[in-house]
Amino acid sequence: MLQPILITGASGVLGRALVSTFTQAGVSVRQAIRQPEKARAGVAWVRLDYTDPATIAPALAGVQGLVLMAPPLDPDAPGKLGPVVARAKQAGLRHVIFISALGVNHNEQAPLRVVEHLVIDSGIPYTILRPNFFMENFSEGFLAARIKAHNGIFLAAGEGKTSFISIHDIASAALAAFQKRLTGEFDLTGPEALDHGEVARAIGQASGRPVRYHALTEEQMVAGAREAGMPESTIGYLTVLYSVVRDGYMATLTPGVERLTGREPTTFGEFTRANAARWQ
Predict the structure, then answer these.
(1) Are residues 78 and 212 both part of a single domain?
(2) How far apart are CA 107 and CA 261, in angstroms?
(3) CA distance 7 to 170
(4) Rounded to an integer, what distance in angstroms lies between the CA atom of residue 269 and that of residue 280?
(5) Are 122 and 92 contacting, i.e. CB atoms less than 8 angstroms apart?
(6) What is residue 32's DSSP assignment?
(7) Does pTM top 0.85 for this prediction?
(8) Is residue 230 in some structural domain?
(9) For the chain, what is the domain count?
(10) Alpha-carbon dihedral of residues 236, 238, 243, 245, nearest 10 degrees?
């Protein structure tokens, strides 16, 4: 297996899972982060700031593999990640895994699809992973605080279903791709598609809280995002994502996790039982 491997976004929800999964497997990892205090103790780290080009070459120096992630909901992902891909090619990296998002290959103008093309056209052996929405958005991501504070999920998702996936399954898929030198494109989903009412009930059952889903209009969701100080470009990205959910496009089920890891992905019930304490 290629080592060491640079993991970008290492202090984020998925990044932490990737670092943990790879190090537990005995892989030499380098964390790429902007804020050193957020680095996992005992694991090598390097500063990487997509807005500071001077940090790119040092971050990639001496590594053979790269797990590349864009900042969440960033419409300028191609501008930020393009120089990293170009430098990875110059440095002779032998494998790049890009964590994209389910469905972006159906929209050639989507920012993450543009990054996919940059990776594909680089000539570096690549694996593109396209996961669906994370289960962990409800336990430690952007939806967790309101579940704890207000016993509610407040989104403009309508009755659309989503095949949520655990970050740990994504991390295991990435590890398997490196270990087996698997290249190509893989869509990653959980084993079932749930609407947000079903999600709320599952969280409530596991945690003992009276969690409810509040179906907002798009206008209400936008107003709430503005009140929270979210940038307009990010709000626009968010509205597109949940319009896709409402239209039913995120309900698809794929065998990607099993193909890469050899096992079935985590169910939402397993996830809620394992994370019940986070909502208590």
Answers:
(1) no
(2) 28
(3) 13
(4) 17
(5) no
(6) E
(7) yes
(8) yes
(9) 2
(10) 160
Ranges of residues in the chain whose predicted pLDDT is under 70: 1
pLDDT value at position 2?
A: 73
Task: Check residue 220 and give its pLDDT.
Answer: 95
Residue 103 makes CB contacts below 8 A (sequence gap 6+) with: 130, 244, 249, 250
Quickly count: other Cβ atoms within 10 Å of residue 219's Cβ.
10
Over the stretch 140-187, which tens digit does the pLDDT of each residue have? 998 999 999 999 999 999 999 999 999 999 999 999 999 999 999 999
| pLDDT tens sequence across 64-98 | 999 999 998 899 999 999 999 999 999 999 999 99
Is 177 part of any domain?
A: no
Same domain, yes or no, for 20 and 102? yes
State which amino acid sits at residue 186.
F
Q: Are residues 114 and 157 in the same domain?
A: no
Cβ atoms within 10 A of the Cβ of 201, count? Answer: 15
Q: What is the DSSP string of 45-85?
A: EEE--TT-GGGHHHHHTT-SEEEEEPPTT-TTHHHHHHHHH
DSSP 214: E
Which 3 state secondary structure label does DSSP give 186? strand
Residue 1: its pLDDT value, please? Answer: 65
The phi-psi region of residue 235 (left if phi > 0; otherwise alpha if psi is between -120 and 50; otherwise beta) is alpha
